[in-house]
Each structure stands twice: as structure tokens, then as C-alpha cells.
Write the C-alpha cells for this entry.
Amino acid sequence: MITEHAEAPHLRTLQKRLAKEVTIMVHSEEDYNAAVEASDILFGNATSAALKKLDEDTLLAVFEGVPRFEVAKSVLDEGVKAVDLFVDNAAVFASKGEMRKLVQGGGVSLNKEKLSAFDQVITSADLLDSKYLLVQRGKKNYFLIIAK
């Protein structure tokens, strides 16, 4: 393992192994796996499939500090344009123009999938655990929309 680390220190194999061992000793292997999945979602290139696998408690724990907005589930049942949802119903964007520019540049994701158009229709079928939408603006800004 030391040789492996010396050949590719940027992969941080020793640090990752130490973190794994300590997490398993203090918590459990299941908790370690959940932590790895959560960090992949936040900082890696996790897919929407990985996001959909998370249970509600883990989802809420991972996104504990992100801004949250509540919208009526009936709005999503009827279908709503992304621009209306993210600007009018939840203040994810300050203006429709700002959102349009970011969507055109590929900088907006819904549940880890790039938004193809700023007026894309979002429905209750897009909800995670039948009540959450995860919006990513840029690389590091996340927002959780809760349908009630």
C-alpha cells in the first residue's frame, strides 16, 4: 500500500484507508459505505441512480446545511416549468435571466441530471422519496425543495 501511495500520491490511498478503518472501528461498515456514497454525491460525479438509492434519512443528513424551500405538492402534480419553480416558487435563482444563462451553460442539475431547457416541465414523477427535489446551481450550490 505504501508503494501504491508513493506511485500515485494524488489518489490519497493511505488517507482513504485510514479514514475507512477509523470509521468502521468507531461506527460500522454500513455507516462507512453510507458516508462514501454521501461524499460521492456531494463532491464526486455521482449519478442520479446513486441519489435515488439514498433513503430519506440519509438524504436529509447529507443535505443538512443546504437551503430548503417548501412548495405545494399540487404544483408538481400539475407539472410546472423549471424556471417558474426555481424562480417564483423557490428562490433558487434571483431572476429568470440568471437561470436561463446557467441552464444554457450546463450549470443547472435536477436530481444530479443536467437540465436540458430552462422551461423543462417538472412533475411529481421527478421527486425523490415522493417529496424531494435536489437542485444544483453551478458546482457547489445545492438546494432542497420539499413538496408538501
Observations:
- The chain has eight helices and seven strands.
- The two ends are 50 Å apart (CA to CA).
- Residues 66-147 form a domain with the Structural Genomics Hypothetical 15.5 Kd Protein In mrcA-pckA Intergenic Region; Chain A fold (CATH 3.10.290.10).
